[in-house]
Amino acid sequence: MSDYRLLDTPIEYLKGVGPQRAAILKKELDIHTYIDLLQYYPFRYVDKTKFYKINELYEELPYVQFVGRIISKELIGANRTQRLVVWVHDNTGKIELVWFQGIKWIKDKIQIGSDYVIFGKVSVFNGKKNIAHPEIEDYSEFTQSRPSKLQSVYNSSEKLKIRGLDTKGISKLLKILVPLINGSIPENLNFDIIQSLRFLSRQESFKQIHFPDSPQQLVQARNRLKFEELFYIQLDLLKVKKEREINEKGFIFGKVGSYFNDFFYKNLPFELTNAQKRVIKEIRVDIGSGKQMNRLLQGDVGSGKTLVALMSMLIALDCGFQACIMAPTEILAKQHFETFSSLLSGLSINIAIITGSSKTAEKKKVLKSLLDGECQIVIGTHALIEKTVEFKNLGFVVIDEQHKFGVAQRAKLWSKNNQAPHVLVMTATPIPRTLAMTFYGDLDTSVIDELPPGRKPIMTLHKMENERFRVIHFMKEQISLGRQIYIVFPLINESETLDLKDLNEGYENLLVDFPLQKYGISVVHGQMKAIDKEIEMKRFLENKSQIMVATTVIEVGVNVPNASVMIIENAERFGLSQLHQLRGRVGRGADQSYCILMTKQKLGFEAKKRTSTMVATNDGFKIAEVDLQLRGPGDVAGTQQSGNTQFLIADLKKDYQILSVARKMASEIIDKDPNLLLPENLVLKNNLIRFRRTKEDWSKIS
Ligand code: ADP
Ligand code: MG
């Protein structure tokens, strides 16, 4: 019977490794055992069956291979700048090869008039095509040992190369390892999965990934290995989720009572969108079911998530429980408090707010009323997590803008009750599908995919410094129409010593065109005292100031419907999701809104892509996907999660299809056999244990 004993052999025992190379493999590549080396997958392949003609070579090609005869070899320059220049030709043309290192050795090795197989990357230097440091092999030797087909290329490093572990060296080790473990690689998927997805065996996949027989075989091997990587993450998440459903009893909020109904019939200022109705229904089913809800609510900026949260909280109140909502910033918490207060007015519901700047006496009062149950809804920042905040019976927890909080912080909030409350986690903007499935894969998901009616799509424009006077003209025009304007400056350092230079300079410049005698200008940035921020926000909210100059503190949540213009300065410095978040601050009223992205003249590829994406679409789901392509999963998922985005072969940018299948399969298995006790699932159970040992924190992400 095959097991993991052979695969777990320390790498130093492999022929050709030894203690020194083993040490460097461990240090540089984290390769400790045979299986680690097997799972050190090539990062690309070169097609050694394809031969180019010299006149077919051009710069845009990847690595190319061709046969050429040496015409000349010549050392040019002296000492450190010396280089070897070699000309080769075939019956279509000639090209220059050049070496800067190992010159003597190459020069002696190659013979004028002989044929060689040359392999390298074409570049253009001074308008002339050449290939620097190509691999070069005697044609007759090449045809004898012909390394047919696709050849693997491995990532290496200087330190590895010194020990002979360049791509060829690594490949040599695998040439020893792969036959050695032939027949000893245990399968880690069950027969059903392999059968129904027509996968190669694990054994064959390892062979094909390193030494592909054909491009088709390679694709099959890659798919299978990607699948198993994604599958175990899903199996892990879904098993944890299932266990929680079975073990965590949830409060049963079985009825909708007068709080909900009074709000719905008397206070609700508008018709709910269909998406809002659907999501509220999903939540109601969950909280009435007896299991504890853990739900992620995704929705674009301005899609009305707050209202869904509020109405869900009212159901908790109807069932005699308290509810709370935690927001990432003080401004947002204040705003939620005001929104809630006005939406709930006349319903005699007791609501309170706790933030870092709450006064001691005031806070004491709130704490007491939470403990004796008099306060029914509390809104707050991180301050809510503090030990001193205790509830009589907390039944429903909402976390707004979840990405701003760490896992531990969220967990603290729901340990505030003996029995875990229901939890609704809300995003600021949509998360790409693959990331949602992976990082929030143990949560149920609801999506608001519809904006409230009557919103005019925000018009987004990209302007550069040379058009500034037009922008100023436009601003004046909008102000004369009664509109208000945000101007946002990037915050370079999010630390205490943040860089306010841009904002201050911008403000000074602004005064030239918008003198304070005529215009009201508010300023808000992260270093101001809470009270000052509040005063400035209030002035803007009450339309006493027409322009709000701010850093990204206004990024999340702020709601001033009369503000219809968002100007983002140095927009090239912002990430896509941040730009989209900022843009979401306008377009909240009935007027046509605008977002103007001001950038410098010359933009890099990514900045161009970001601005053009913003101009092209208002759809947060689309923007999230572009963001993922540009930044990669680690950055998009946020700092809290980025440690967990290391994949061996799967790629969350591309592998949506495989991931969906993996999730579906894992979900079917867990539904049928939550503890993986069926004989056919034994292999999954054992491998899940292995998986958890290596990827300890997957299940603790959300
Ligand atoms: P977000 O999902 O970004 O948190 P909010 O909950 O702040 O969005 O809602 C944005 C704005 O839309 C608010 O002014 C809110 O009052 C309004 N709104 C929410 N739902 C509706 C609706 N069904 N019809 C009209 N306006 C709505
Ligand atoms: Mg919101």
Low-confidence stretches: 639-643, 697-702
Q: Percent range for helical residues?
A: 40-55%
Summing up helix and strand content along with how strands pair, one would put the structural category as: alpha/beta
Distance between the termini: 38 Å
Strand content: 15-25%
Give the overall average pLDDT.
88
Bound molecules: adenosine-5'-diphosphate, magnesium ion
Radius of gyration: 31 Å
Please identify the oligomeric state. Answer: single chain
Largest sheet: 7 strands, mixed
The largest sheet has its strands arranged as 6-7-4-3-2-5-8
The geometry reads as globular
How many β strands by DSSP?
Answer: 22
> What is the count of helical runs?
25
Descriptive notes:
This protein is of the alpha/beta class and 702 residues long. It contains 25 helices and 22 strands. The strands form four sheets. The protein has a seven-stranded mixed sheet with strand order 6-7-4-3-2-5-8. Strands 12-13-11-14-15-10-16 form a seven-stranded parallel sheet, sandwiched between helices. Helix 15 (407-414) links the parallel strand 14 (394-399) and strand 15 (422-426). The longest helix is centred in the N-terminal third of the chain and has 33 residues, at 215-247. It starts with 17 loop residues before the first helix and ends in an 8-residue tail after the last helix. It binds adenosine-5'-diphosphate and magnesium ion. Adenosine-5'-diphosphate binds at residues 270-273, 276, 299, 301-307, 452, 559, 588.
